[in-house]
Design goal:
This protein has a single domain, classed as Orthogonal Bundle (Arc Repressor Mutant, subunit A). It is 36% helix and 9% strand. It contains 5 helices and 6 strands. A two-stranded antiparallel ribbon has the order 1-2. Helix 1 crosses helix 3 and helix 2 packs across helix 3. The longest helix has 12 residues. The two termini are 23 Å apart. The relative contact order is 0.18. This is Methylated-DNA-[protein]-cysteine S-methyltransferase DNA binding domain-containing protein. InterPro entries: ATL_DNA_repair, MethylDNA_cys_MeTrfase_DNA-bd, MethylDNA_cys_MeTrfase_DNAb, WH-like_DNA-bd_sf. Keywords: DNA damage.
């Protein structure tokens, strides 16, 4: 898995192979998403004009640990299973709009308010590949 260098970029563990080009592009988009905003897996694929939500999800699962992974989300705003508490901490720290869960909801975890939190890539879209 790649790690983040002190300069903020990504580098590979010794002996590891370079990231696939598509993975680099996905991770670049994840790094561009401003704090407090999110993009869906499908949004990222659409912005790149390549792949689909499953391909983006696979890249994030394999290589996303070195980027703000919590900003690439499911389209329904449900928190990433198995990482809910870590993601929730990031969302609260960044001021990401959330909708509180009803008491009837399993786990009573909030979900992302997609209408308010979704970023279209417009503010920093220049220079994307």
């Amino acid at each position: 898995m790649s790690e983040q260098s002190p300069e903020g970029g990504r580098y590979e563990d010794e002996g590891a192979q370079a990231l696939p080009e598509y993975a680099e592009r996905v991770l670049d988009v994840a790094e561009r998403i401003p704090p407090g905003r999110v993009m869906t897996y499908g949004d990222v694929a659409e912005w790149l004009e390549e792949g689909g939500p499953r391909q983006v999800g696979r890249v994030m699962a394999l290589y996303g640990g070195a980027v703000p992974w919590w900003r690439v989300v499911r389209a329904d705003g449900v928190l990433l299973p198995g990482h809910e508490q870590r993601a929730l901490g990031h969302y609260r720290a960044e001021g990401t709009p959330l909708k509180e869960a009803s008491r009837a909801a399993e786990g009573h975890l909030p979900h992302i308010d997609m209408r308010r939190a979704r970023w279209d890539g417009g503010e920093r879209a220049e220079g994307h590949t």
